[in-house]
Write a structure and sequence with these properties.
Layout (H helix, E strand, L loop, with lengths): L27 E5 L6 E5 L6 E2 L6 E5 L4 E3 L2 E6 L1
Antiparallel strand pairs: 1-2, 1-6, 3-4, 4-5
Length: 78
């Protein structure tokens, strides 16, 4: 690999350190509606109100970053 260098400059042959791979902190959550007992999978950082598909009960509401979950959490998916 040829590079044009200015006078007095040397080519640095050291390898640059690799960047870390970021992992997401967001998760999907399986919840059970307290009113009709049906199960549903919702996003842990929901930005809109999440309602039960059967009885329309409010399961989660947004609050900045994470959603405030108002139902029983059965399982957390990573």
């Amino acid at each position: 690999m040829n590079r044009k260098l200015k006078k007095g400059k040397k080519l640095n042959k050291e390898m640059k350190p690799m960047k870390e791979i970021r992992t997401t902190k967001s998760k999907f959550v399986r919840v059970r509606c307290p009113k009709c007992k049906s199960e549903q999978i919702i996003f842990g950082k929901a930005t809109t109100k999440v309602r039960c598909l059967k009885c329309n009960y409010l399961l989660a509401k947004p609050s900045g970053g994470k959603a405030k979950i108002r139902a029983r959490i059965l399982e957390v998916f990573k």
